[in-house]
Amino acid sequence: MIANLKYISALIIALLLTALTSCKEDKGITNYYHRVDPVVSLVAKIDGSNREFTVVDESLKTNDILIDLPYYFPEESEDEIDVSRMQLDIIFHEEVNVLSEIPTIVDLTAPFVIKIKNADGKEEDVHIIADIKKNNRAQILSFALPSIGLNGTVVESVRMIGINRSNHDLANIVPQITISGGATISPNPNEPQNFHERVSYTVTAQDGTERVYTVEDLASINNFDITKGVNIASWLSTPKYDGPQREAFFKEADVALLADLGFDHIRLCIDEVHLWDETGNKIRAYGFDLLHNAINWSIKYNMRVLVDMHITRNHRFTNTENTLFTDPDEPAKFVKLWEDLSDELKNYPNSLVAYELLNEPVSGNAENWNRVSALAINAIRAREADRTIVVGVCTANGSLRQEQLTIPSNHHILLTDHFYGPYLLTAYGLQSTTGGRQDIPIQYPGQLVPTEWISELPANWQSTGARFYDRNTLETSLQKSFDMAKRLSAPLFIGEFGTMNTTPEPSRSNWYRDVVFILNKHNVPYTSFDYKGAGYSVVNENMTIRYPDIVDILLGK
């Protein structure tokens, strides 16, 4: 009897434990079934166009997803947008079950309804809505005085247009002005004006927004405004050629091409050894002479120039440490270079030429760069109070140290960072990434390398190959740079980004498209690497466009 009671007691205890475990599991399941916001992201395109349209962020918290669309498209035209043939790239929450079939082409002249089952098991409707608004752009895009061969410089941040008033008769001149599509301008640009005096123009957008621009003497404008540009390498930095061949590599026609394509600036990379000899004397032929040529060509075509000190005798970005930071005599030599450059270039307008202190500073201690950069900034400021100075991020022990960068003042400081992530993708096919192999499959977005190919990668790249990358992961990678700019209260631009031409399509274009999208979203200007003559180049040496689709992405077309 006692044995039976023990048996029954043990059975009851076992049943109670099972019930408790079951209750715990049921509680977990009950908590799992909750409602989520159905749509994580959405990108729309008009069928036949590469232009991407995004959603109003706040609408992602609802079931009415609003696609932000212009009233006119192309936006500089007066053609009303046609939303009857739209392509939708929608990412739903992983806990949402999509019940409707989504066709390749969607008509958004009326809300498009998608039926889903949410995480709580309830069926819902998601409405995709074309939120069409009249353009609020009221901009002067270009300004010229063609009768005297003079181009104006539009400085959007202060809504000024700079013209060179010296040695020109400007008393009765008819300007040539380009404005935002659908906008109007007053006074009538066909009327002659006396541009020896300040002249104001009011531009009115489609939605009634007004902006006033004033035409001033170029020398009085200090703001350096840029949006999209290209690096000029292989010329005055690690040049591909010497002598006359170097001179022929980059000519006025190249600047004209870039301006015609729609770029507004160049980052002109220079190396100390090609502009100064070992005794510190300036090298004119095929050195400073070419530097001045490039700046003057750029000014002629209303292009801005960032003069970038790429490599010095005491610093190279491929080193793990540099004598610039370890030898106490070297910082003074670096400062002297910038004193020389400032004396050489100080007469160029502040709105058209900026100075980048050093490409990709590298030191075992990020504080070393803070100390040396402050010396150079103060030396330039003693000569040029309002010149824009570009300051980059130090790499220490293999990691970018955005959080450690300091500047003595944010007055006309432009911060810069570079982006090549993930490097296994952007430098695909190099000895340093895939061991020189180009037969290993790689894709973006998604898991970079298929699982079955991971073991074919060099050991140090296998974990990267197994990771998933998309627009969100790239934006997360760039967030440190955005946070740095906010912390230092200074604007940011991305001075280099790009992929080797060995990166396969469509992954290559997908990556460029996402990086440009992210930078535009955060209003960060950018300069792609690079123009021609190297593995990243988008133009051939004969000036034909090597990768037209990539160029269109860079220009936002």
Automatic annotation (TrEMBL):
Q: Which Gene3D superfamilies match?
A: 2.60.40.2340, Glycosidases
Q: Which domain of life is it from?
A: Bacteria
InterPro entries per UniProt: DUF5018, GH, Glyco_hydro_5, Glyco_hydro_5_CS, Glycosyl_hydrolase_5
The residue ranges of the DUF5018 domain are 60-217
> What family does this chain come from, according to its entry?
Belongs to the glycosyl hydrolase 5 (cellulase A) family.
Domain Glycoside hydrolase family spans what residues? 251-533
Per its UniProt record, what PANTHER family does this chain match? ENDOGLUCANASE, PUTATIVE (AFU_ORTHOLOGUE AFUA_5G01830)-RELATED, GLUCAN ENDO-1,6-BETA-GLUCOSIDASE B
The identity of this protein, by name, is Cellulase family glycosylhydrolase
Any signal peptide, and if so, which residues? 1-24
UniProt entry keywords in alphabetical sequence = Carbohydrate metabolism, Cellulose degradation, Glycosidase, Hydrolase, Polysaccharide degradation, Signal
Gene source species: Sphingobacterium chuzhouense
